[in-house]
Design brief:
The protein has helices at 9-43, 75-85, 114-120, 128-141, 167-170, 248-256, and strands spanning 51-53, 61-67, 91-97, 103-107, 144-146, 156-162, 173-182, 187-197. With 258 residues, it is of the alpha+beta class. Helix 2 (75-85) crosses helix 4 (128-141).
């Protein structure tokens, strides 16, 4: 006689089908659950607020950029920085750290950009972008190696740093920050710490396939690289790329998959 507690074959198959489906769904989505739990904890942990601007500056005159994430600005990046920021009016001097650990300082005046400016205003014929790049390269050739800028040698510092996460957290998240400092009084006038998530297992990066993290922040401002343009570099030319020839998410993906 069949036990009252036995399960009929059809129901048994349905049970295992549901069990296996739930198991597969959990396998594909467990990272979503973990990511959002970790993100909630980190987004509510100090420092808060995650992003702020105390004041803006129209004419900073001199800035030191230090990037410890890439780390530093290579030769191509330094030309981009000169082209986009060192206009000789708002910014007359800049210093940049390099992957080799050295620091280069560059200076410029309006005269250094006279030819491209004339082309842009249609006072003469020529290729504006090519001329602009050539002028930036000429300024780069005058660069000088310096020691780490002292508190008063350059007016402002823009510092990019990775934010250390635990080994477990870093499997699901990436965090970095930018700090903008008035060197004359050591005041932090702008700050942004963002938390980015990796691509979910069920929704990988179908579009590009080479990005390290999803482009929308869990908290903080999405645009780490351009955040200083809200504070002290609104005047920038904003030609793409802005600071680095290789975007951060591509660079991190490349390093992770060497």
């Amino acid at each position: 006689m069949e036990s009252h507690f036995s399960i009929k074959p059809a129901k048994r198959k349905l049970f295992w089908l549901i069990f296996m489906s739930l198991g597969l769904l959990l396998f594909l989505t467990y990272d979503i659950i973990i990511t959002n739990i970790l993100a909630y904890q980190l987004c509510h942990a100090p420092p808060n607020p995650k992003t702020f601007i105390k004041k803006t500056v129209e004419y900073p005159e001199s800035i030191y950029w230090e990037d410890t994430i890439y780390p530093g600005f290579n030769e191509q990046d330094r030309i981009l920085m000169i082209r986009n920021y060192l206009d000789g009016v708002h910014l007359k001097a800049m210093a940049l750290n390099t992957p080799e650990g050295t620091i280069y300082q560059y200076t410029a005046t309006e005269k250094d950009w006279a030819t491209s400016k004339a082309i842009k205003s249609r006072k003469m014929n020529g290729n504006y972008y090519k001329t602009l790049d050539n002028e930036a390269k000429m300024i780069a050739q005058r660069g000088k190696k310096i020691d780490r800028p002292t508190a008063h040698s350059l007016n402002y510092s823009v510092i990019f740093n990775p934010v250390k996460l635990s080994g477990f957290q870093s499997k699901y998240l990436w965090s970095d920050e930018i700090k903008i400092i008035d060197n004359r009084n050591n005041e932090v006038i702008g700050f942004n710490r963002r938390l980015m998530r990796h691509w979910y297992r069920i929704f990988p990066d179908f579009e590009v396939g080479r990005r390290y993290f999803y482009p929308h922040a869990m908290c903080g401002d999405n645009d780490l690289e351009g955040f200083d343009e809200n504070v002290i570099t609104k005047f920038s030319r904003m030609f793409w790329p802005i600071k680095h020839a290789e975007s951060l998410d591509f660079m991190l993906f490349r390093k992770e998959n060497k």
